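Protocol step 4 of 6.
Sequence for Spy/CpxP family protein refolding chaperone (Litoribacter ruber) entered exactly as in the expression construct, tag removed. Do not edit the line below.
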Amino acid sequence: MRKILIILLLLTSSSTLWAQRPQREYDKDKLEAARVAFVTNRINLTPTQAEKFWPLYNQHLEERSGYMREMMSINRQAGESISDSQAEKLIEQRFQIQEKMMQSEKAFTKKITEVISPVQALQLSNVNRDFTRQLYRMQRDDRRSRHSN
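Step 5 output, structure tokens:
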């Protein structure tokens, strides 16, 4: 019953989130609440696990976002007219960032497996992908329903 309620909360808040906002705008609090509910439900976090898991997870997401911003910066530079030597430097920088991301992921996994089970940790990456897909699907369906009216 609890799972059904969490899923309904997720679907209701996510559909409301997309339906009420103009394109490219969203309510960050609702999105975060939906993500927390989705992940908590899908990997079956207990309240004790959740209390310890979410601070670690949020810190990891912030760190990962920083790395992704660096990668986007490199990609923007690569889109410009650059020399071969500049391109080689950018390639090396990209590999260095990817290595940092891998080390960060390993450290994060080690930390969270002290809080959640290895099975839950393994499920986490699929759950994140599923949540993103669910949001895209809901946004697409909302656009289709608005255009068909």
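Step 6, annotate. Confidence is low (pLDDT under 50) at residues 3-10.
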